[in-house]
UniProtKB/TrEMBL annotation:
Protein name (Swiss-Prot/TrEMBL): DUF58 domain-containing protein
InterPro entries: DUF58
Residue span, DUF58 domain: 204-245
Residue spans crossing the bilayer: 9-26, 32-51
UniProtKB keywords: Membrane, Transmembrane, Transmembrane helix
Natural source organism: Cellulomonas rhizosphaerae
Pfam families per record: DUF58
Length: 415
């Protein structure tokens, strides 16, 4: 808790000290008594305010904060209710004279004071307000700051009550159409099978990363000591990897890349595909697991991977991350995987690595123009041509453009 005199308190204390000096010099007992009374008023008020600290003691006040919705997508409005409760009569007395102020990260408050609605009851005060989740990330909100002034108005105290909460802000996403006749062509359907299940389980193969566990043939797996799946179970969907090459600059290029990648991942998940998101920096030797179920928790698991993404520090680091991700895709052996990528202009090593990915996978790419110079524009166009020669379906995009338009243009591209 922090104590400080009010202007009235400073004036009273200053006058008391001045009168004390004057009374001592003149030998006036009455003046000394008046001075001591003024000083005692300020000191006693400070002692009482400190003793009635609402954050300590048997009569402390409880704070409960409810944030809804949480998590939330960037650009959404979040409602916050702070419930300040008194547990007994002593706490209710302390609660009566308190003033409340809430704190929030700049990414939630835009640096402006929060406008709250305060509802007071006998044993509870509710502070309600809204914030706008402006940026992707994890942002703190709270703790509650309470202030109190003594009855004479000479001393004010401020203290924090309760803990802070965290608002999880996912990137903004848009709904993307997923035309199966484009992403999974007719030759792929022959290889993958139709969508109706077969009753003949005689044809089995080894389990591969991305296969649906519901098609595991458990009796054969037990006999052979390894997972086996029904290869003629024709309800399967091709696994999808969404690869994001994070730009060197933050701001619009970074957030647009992440938003586009997240939108593609959710669209493919909703279409029934097992999906994983790759950013290169967090690729491990064991690989990144696929998310299978079309549930809110599965969508959350994908979006959570975007929360801590940051722009790369150098072009060399970006290429290193991209090569690592391409190597993992090339060695996964997912059997006809679909790779959706949001890339920047590529260097020779990255182009070579990504060229091998489409030997066993189907590749679709958006290539950003990260700068405004003619040279950077040419680098992006060169990357698009190189990817197309390797077998990718690639288009050039501009960070900040409509994601649906970029997605539709990519699906309409040709090799």
């Amino acid at each position: 808790m922090r104590l400080r005199p009010t202007p009235r308190g400073w004036g009273l204390a200053g006058a008391g000290l001045a009168i004390l000096g004057l009374g001592t010099g003149m030998g006036s007992t009455d003046l000394v008594r008046i001075a001591l009374l003024a000083l005692l008023c300020v000191g006693g008020a400070a002692a009482v305010v400190a003793w009635r600290d609402p954050a300590r003691g048997r009569h402390r006040i409880d704070v409960d904060r409810v944030v809804m919705p949480n998590p939330v997508h960037a650009g959404s409005v979040v409602g916050v209710d702070v419930h300040i409760r008194a547990r007994d009569s002593g706490a209710r007395t302390r609660l009566a004279g308190l003033k409340f102020a809430e704190q929030a990260a700049t990414e939630l408050s835009a640096g402006k004071p929060l406008k709250a609605r305060v509802v007071r009851e006998r044993s509870e005060v509710t502070v309600s307000y809204t914030v706008e989740a402006a940026r992707r990330g994890r942002w703190p909100i709270g703790p509650l700051v309470v202030t109190r002034t003594d009855v004479f108005g000479t001393v004010t105290s401020s203290a924090t009550l309760g803990d802070s909460a965290e608002v999880t802000v996912w990137p903004a996403v848009v709904a993307l159409p997923t035309p199966s006749d484009v992403l999974v062509g007719e030759p792929d359907r022959v290889a993958l099978g139709a969508r109706s299940p077969s009753t003949d389980d005689a044809s089995l193969r080894d389990y591969r990363e991305g296969d649906d566990l519901r098609r595991v043939h458990w009796s054969s797996s037990a006999r052979r000591g390894a997972l086996m799946v029904r290869s003629d179970e024709r309800a399967g969907m091709r696994p999808v990897s969404v690869l994001m090459d994070l730009p060197l600059r933050g701001g619009v290029p970074l957030e647009w890349t992440i938003s586009a990648g997240a939108s593609m991942a959710l669209a493919m998940l909703d279409a029934g595909h097992p999906v994983r998101m790759l950013d290169g920096a967090r690729v491990s030797a064991a690989g990144t697991p696929f998310v299978h179920a079309r549930t809110d928790s599965a969508r959350g698991a994908l979006l959570d991977r975007t929360l801590d993404l940051e722009s790369t520090r150098s072009a060399g680091e970006a290429e290193k991350h991209l090569v690592a991700a391409a190597h993992m895709l090339d060695s996964t052996e997912a059997g006809g995987e679909i790779v959706l990528a949001v890339l920047g202009a590529l260097g020779p090593k990255a182009r070579e690595s990504l060229a091998h990915v489409v030997d066993t996978a189907q590749g679709w790419a958006m290539v950003r123009t990260d700068g405004v110079s003619a040279a950077q524009q040419q680098d992006s166009e060169h990357t698009v041509r190189a990817l197309r020669r390797a077998g990718w379906r690639a288009v050039a995009v501009t960070p900040g453009e409509d994601v649906v338009a970029a997605w539709t243009r990519m699906l309409g591209s040709v090799r």
